[in-house]
Structures are given as structure tokens and as C-alpha cells.
Design a protein that fits this description.
With 487 residues, the protein is mainly alpha-helical. Helix 4 crosses helix 5 and helix 13 packs antiparallel against helix 14. Strand 1 and strand 2 form a beta hairpin. A two-stranded antiparallel sheet has the order 1-2. The chain folds into four domains: 103 residues, Cytochrome Bc1 Complex, Chain D, domain 2, CATH 1.10.760; 89 residues, Cytochrome c-like domain (Cytochrome Bc1 Complex, Chain D, domain 2), CATH 1.10.760.10; 97 residues, Cytochrome c-like domain (Cytochrome Bc1 Complex, Chain D, domain 2); 113 residues, Cytochrome c-like domain (Cytochrome Bc1 Complex, Chain D, domain 2, Orthogonal Bundle). It binds heme C (4 copies). The site of one heme C has 25 residues, from helix 2 and helix 4. The site of one heme C has 26 residues, from helix 19 and helix 21.
Length: 487
């Protein structure tokens, strides 16, 4: 028996616990004991049955659907006092402003209570299997995180972002959602919160079912460090992908913008800015599958790019996406090394003066130093900013990891190159080309605040996507790293 029963409330309970532990009882009588514990120690605050009601008429959250709502390990931890308060300002913030200290029971009592809930407090409205947790992709979860903010959820609930707790602590804390909730309960709750908590300050969001599912995917990753994301490109459709079918899709759907031979010159291209990517210049074999899948399945904005690149999931389905990717990989291998920058310069459409500068400073070679910059000048309030971090070894290392590997939607090196010389594998496909950070002659004249602004906002009409999801701190780490690449 658990020794810290000193903190258990009520001496009657302690006495009963002692009794239970000494007499190896059967399951049925355990459940009866659990009912007694609930009757004696819980119902003065919680309701176990009845109709959903206003928080302002209750003392504590309803447990009417407790058998469907919680993950068992969380419930045990909660009841044995191992969890932080859920309501930072108190469940009844109208009566007190402090979180309440919850009564604690022993581990065996907690288990008996959990068994009791599982047997007697299932919610028939909750359809088991309604939400498939094994199909949540990284993209869906991060989209769900954006939807969470866009729908004001952050206004009343806290979450964990980059190790910080943010949000309005009015209602329940959601930073451990993935440990706490059953996903099917969350889904049913989300379909209509008023079926559970009417007149409690709750909010009905104008969200579609896919958005709700994305938000739940996001919540279920909160508090779960090793969440196993689904990778659609490992699905059976990709196993049987066909280059031949992909070729037909390319002709029917992609060539209208990207051109019949992938030169970015389809009939729609003349009216588009940014221009459709020049597939012929991209070595598709080398691109990360996640990136390729996201831009084709979910569209340009999924990777911080133009919404004129459509999301194809509905039109061609999972099999079509798999097939067209197989076709891209089999057909387009990129340019031979060295031809890259020359080709990019040749296809570039830019003001004559800038073009002249570029040509003269490149001297026809592939390593252009001072580049024509298409980026817009940042507002004055940004231009005066200076890097608040010291360029320590840790900061440079953090910046390097982001640049080379981890930045989302894409690692900077993919375009700017591992050395920062603008010759990443995607570089040749982009007009204008990515910035060459090794060129001190150019970089010395670009203020920190300008770099900061472009990284956050992107450079619309160019390949430079927006990295609005990066925290200020991470952007400053990147800027130190970029500056360290200069020659
Ligand atoms: C003195 C009143 C009181 C008693 C007694 C009490 N609780 Fe609670 N309980 C609360 C309050 C208040 C909360 C909200 C938690 C917070 O503010 O952090 C809560 C939260 C909970 C939750 C989480 C609810 C949610 O929001 O999902 C569970 C589960 C729970 N209690 C179970 C029990 C059980 C089982 C017992 C009996 C062993 C019990 N409680 C006894 C007041 C009480
Ligand atoms: C205006 C404040 C407000 C906003 C905005 C809001 N909520 Fe809530 N939410 C509440 C209140 C109040 C409850 C009822 C629980 C309680 O009594 O605190 C609740 C309950 C919940 C619960 C169930 C909590 C539990 O354990 O019983 C979830 C999950 C939830 N909200 C998610 C969301 C999501 C997702 C959004 C955005 C679409 C959102 N909320 C927006 C106030 C809000
Ligand atoms: C309506 C025009 C249009 C159609 C149709 C179209 N695309 Fe695109 N695509 C674009 C534009 C514009 C971009 C460049 C976006 C940017 O740079 O912001 C792009 C970019 C891309 C990229 C990303 C390259 C990069 O910069 O990372 C890929 C891959 C791609 N398209 C594949 C496809 C495939 C496959 C199809 C057919 C299923 C297709 N596109 C159909 C307009 C289109
Ligand atoms: C998909 C390709 C691509 C990726 C990925 C990319 N960039 Fe860029 N970047 C570009 C292009 C193209 C330009 C040139 C834009 C222009 O001239 O308007 C550019 C320009 C820039 C500039 C120049 C700003 C200026 O005003 O001169 C900075 C700074 C920059 N990128 C930083 C980054 C960082 C940091 C990352 C990673 C977090 C990154 N880029 C990822 C393509 C990319």
C-alpha cells in the first residue's frame, strides 16, 4: 500500500483503505469499494450523473463522461496528486483566484476509481475509433497549431510552445492534452462543446471538420515528446506508384503552369508572379519527401510559398500524388554542376540595370558575389534592430542546426547551400537566385533588421518563403550563423 496516505483527505477514507489492502478483494467488490470512495470523497464536489450544466452552478468539472474522457495513466497520476492544477485561476474563478489543491487518493484507490469509470461512466455519444491518432502527420499537427491560434483558442486556454506556457489561463490547461485526453472524446467534444459545458464561458468555433481534426491532432501532441507522426509517403499508394500514370497527370494538370517539359513556361505562367518552379532544374531525387509531398498535396502555402501552386489532394488523390512524385523523380535530375547559376542568370527576369550588375560582377562565372536583390526594404522600425544575442558557440551551433537541417518548412541549406553560397540543390530552379551569404561585399551593407524581417516575412514573388513559425530567438541565431559564413 502506498505510504503517502498521510495527505489523503478525510480519516474515514484512510481507515477504509487500510481495510481494503488487508483483504484481497474480488473485482466486483473492488468496484463497490470504488463506488463508496466516490460517494464519500468525490460527489460533494463532482457530479457523476445528470445533464450537462453551467460551470457557475458546479463546484468542479463534471465526471459524468469520465470513462470516455481520460487516458488512464493521466487519471491515476491526477488522483494520486502528481499533476499540476488544470485551472490556474481556480475552476470557479468567480469565487477565488487561486488554483485549488486537489484531494489525493492512494494508487490502488486511483486504479479502482479508474476501473469504475471505465465500467460505469462511458459516454454513449463518444464513438470509439472516430479519431485515428495513427494518421496524424506533422503537417496536420502544425496546421492544427495555426488553426488553434486563428480560432482564438489561445485566448482562454494555455499551451506549450518552445518550452514556454502561453495563452489565457481562464479555462482548462491544454499543455498536457496528449497525456490527458482520449482522442475520441476530444473529437466529440469539439463537434459541439455545448453538449458538455453549456453557459460556462465556452466558445463555438466556425471551423470545418478537417480543421477540427487538425486542431485535435495538434492537441494530442501537446505534452508528448516522442509523438509518432504518420508519414503518408510510406503508405501503400507510394509502394505502387507508377511513373506512367504520373506522366499523364503531369500533362493534364501540372503542365498548364509548369510547362510540358518542366521549364516553367506553361500557358498560365505569363500571368504569374512568382513564376511556376522550373522543374527541369530541380534534382527531385535529392529533395526531402516531406517537402515534396507537402507542396504537392497541400499546396504552396504549406511550405510558405505562393497560393497559386494549388493543393492537389482532392483533385488527384493520394495515388495521384504518389504517381506524379514518381514521375518528377524519374524525369527531372537538375542541372549538371556549374551550369546552375548561369542558367538561373539567363532565365532571370529583372530590371536591366540590376541584370547588368549581375552579369558584370559574375564575369559569366557561376559564383555571383554581389547579387541583384529583389527583396523589399524592411520598415524603419526593423532596420534599426540589432542582434540581441551574443555570438557564442552555442548560439552559432543552434543557428547552424536550423540552417542546415531543422528549419521548417525547409532547411535554408536546401536553397542557400551548405556553405551559404546560394548554390543549394534548389538554388538553380529559382529566379531570382538565393542570396549568397559568403559575399561580404554585399552582406556588410545589409542590416540585421533587414535579414530578420525577410526571414520572418519571406520575399513575396521569389523562392524565399516566410519562416513566420520561427521564434525571434531562433531567427537571431540564424542571423549570427549567416554572418559567420562571410568571406
Ligand atoms: C473539494 C472538492 C473536490 C473533491 C472532494 C474532489 N475533487 Fe476532483 N476536482 C475538483 C476541482 C476544483 C477540479 C478542477 C481541477 C483544477 O482546478 O485544477 C477537479 C478535477 C478533477 C478531475 C479532472 C477533471 C477535468 O477537468 O477533466 C478529476 C478526474 C477529478 N477531479 C476526480 C476526482 C475524484 C475521483 C475525486 C474523489 C476521490 C475528487 N475529484 C474529489 C474538486 C474536487
Ligand atoms: C472565450 C473563451 C474560450 C475560447 C476562445 C475557447 N475555449 Fe475551450 N473552453 C472554454 C470554457 C469556459 C470551457 C469549459 C470548461 C471550463 O469550465 O472551463 C472550455 C472547454 C474546452 C475543452 C474541454 C476541456 C475539458 O477538459 O473539459 C477543450 C478541449 C477546449 N475547450 C478546446 C478549445 C479549442 C480547441 C478552442 C478553439 C477552437 C477553444 N477551446 C476556445 C473557454 C474557451
Ligand atoms: C496554377 C498553376 C500551377 C499548377 C497547375 C501547378 N503548379 Fe506547381 N507551382 C506553381 C507555382 C506558381 C509555384 C511556385 C511557388 C513559389 O515559388 O512561391 C509552384 C511550385 C511547385 C513546386 C515547388 C518547387 C519549389 O519551389 O520548392 C512543385 C514541386 C510543384 N509546383 C509541383 C507541381 C505539380 C506536381 C503539379 C501538378 C500536379 C503542379 N505543380 C501544378 C504553380 C502551379
Ligand atoms: C526554397 C528556397 C529557399 C529557402 C528554403 C530559403 N531561402 Fe532565403 N532566399 C531564397 C531566395 C530565392 C532569396 C532571394 C530573394 C530576393 O532576392 O528577393 C532569398 C533571400 C534570403 C535573404 C536575403 C534578404 C535580403 O534582404 O537580402 C535572407 C536573409 C534569407 N534568404 C535567409 C534565409 C534563411 C535564414 C532560411 C532558412 C531559415 C532561408 N533563407 C531559406 C530562397 C530560399
Amino acid at each position: 500500500m502506498n505510504m503517502n496516505r498521510g495527505i489523503v483527505i478525510g480519516s474515514a477514507l484512510i481507515a477504509m483503505v487500510g481495510l481494503m489492502s488487508s483483504s484481497g478483494m474480488s473485482l466486483a467488490s473492488d468496484q463497490m469499494a470504488a463506488r463508496d470512495i466516490l460517494q464519500q470523497n468525490c460527489v460533494q464536489c463532482h457530479r457523476l450523473e445528470g445533464r450537462p450544466g453551467s460551470r457557475f452552478n458546479l463546484k468542479a468539472p463534471d465526471l459524468i463522461w469520465a470513462g470516455s474522457k481520460y487516458r488512464r495513466p493521466w487519471l491515476i497520476d491526477w488522483l494520486t496528486g502528481k499533476e499540476a492544477p488544470l485551472y490556474a485561476k481556480g475552476y470557479r474563478w468567480d469565487l477565488s483566484e487561486a488554483p485549488s489543491k486537489h484531494p489525493v487518493v492512494s494508487a490502488s484507490e486511483a486504479n479502482a476509481i479508474a476501473d469504475y469509470f471505465a465500467a460505469h461512466s462511458k459516454d454513449p455519444r463518444v464513438k470509439v475509433g472516430a479519431y485515428d491518432l495513427s494518421k496524424v502527420t506533422k503537417f496536420e499537427a502544425s496546421f492544427g497549431g495555426m488553426a488553434f491560434k486563428a480560432h482564438a483558442c489561445l485566448g482562454c486556454h494555455t499551451i506549450n510552445e518552445d518550452g514556454k506556457i502561453i495563452g489565457g489561463p481562464q479555462s482548462t490547461a491544454l499543455q498536457a492534452s496528449g497525456q490527458r485526453y482520449d482522442q475520441d472524446w476530444l473529437f466529440r467534444f469539439g463537434l459541439n462543446p455545448q453538449d458538455f459545458v453549456p453557459h460556462s464561458g465556452e466558445f463555438l468555433a466556425d471551423a470545418t471538420e478537417p480543421q477540427l481534426r487538425a486542431v485535435i491532432g495538434y492537441l494530442m501532441t501537446q505534452g508528448v515528446d516522442d509523438f509518432k507522426y504518420y508519414e503518408p509517403w510510406t503508405s501503400p499508394e507510394f509502394g505502387v506508384a507508377s511513373v506512367g500514370r504520373g506522366k499523364v497527370i503531369y500533362k493534364e494538370y501540372c503542365s498548364q503552369c509548369h510547362g510540358a517539359t518542366g521549364k516553367g513556361d506553361g500557358p498560365a505562367a505569363s500571368g504569374l508572379n512568382p513564376k511556376p518552379a522550373i522543374h527541369a532544374n530541380i534534382p527531385f531525387e535529392k529533395l526531402p519527401m516531406e517537402y515534396l509531398y507537402n507542396v504537392i498535396n497541400h499546396g504552396g502555402p504549406a511550405i510558405g510559398k505562393s497560393p497559386n501552386m494549388p493543393y492537389w489532394n482532392l483533385t488527384i488523390g493520394q495515388q495521384g500524388v504518389a504517381d506524379v512524385i514518381a514521375y518528377l523523380k524519374a524525369t527531372f535530375k537538375g542541372l549538371p554542376a556549374g551550369a546552375a547559376a548561369v542558367s538561373a542568370a539567363a532565365t532571370r527576369t529583372m530590371p536591366t540595370k540590376a541584370a547588368a550588375t549581375a552579369t558584370s560582377s559574375s564575369g559569366g562565372r557561376s559564383d555571383v558575389c554581389v547579387q541583384p536583390r529583389k527583396t523589399v526594404k524592411a520598415p524603419d522600425s526593423f532596420l534599426v534592430m540589432t542582434n540581441p544575442l551574443a555570438a557564442s558557440a552555442e548560439v552559432l551551433q543552434a543557428g547552424k542546426t536550423l540552417f542546415q537541417k531543422s528549419a521548417k518548412p525547409a532547411a535554408c541549406a536546401m536553397c542557400h547551400g551548405e556553405k551559404g553560397d546560394g548554390k543549394g540543390m534548389m538554388g538553380a530552379a529559382l529566379v531570382p537566385p538565393p542570396r549568397n551569404f559568403t559575399c561580404n561585399a554585399m552582406m556588410k551593407d545589409i542590416p540585421d533588421g533587414q535579414l530578420f524581417w525577410i526571414i520572418k516575412k519571406g520575399s513575396p514573388g521569389t523562392g524565399m518563403m516566410s519562416f513566420s513559425g520561427l521564434s525571434d530567438e531562433k531567427v537571431w541565431q540564424l542571423i549570427h550563423y549567416i554572418r559567420s559564413l562571410g568571406r
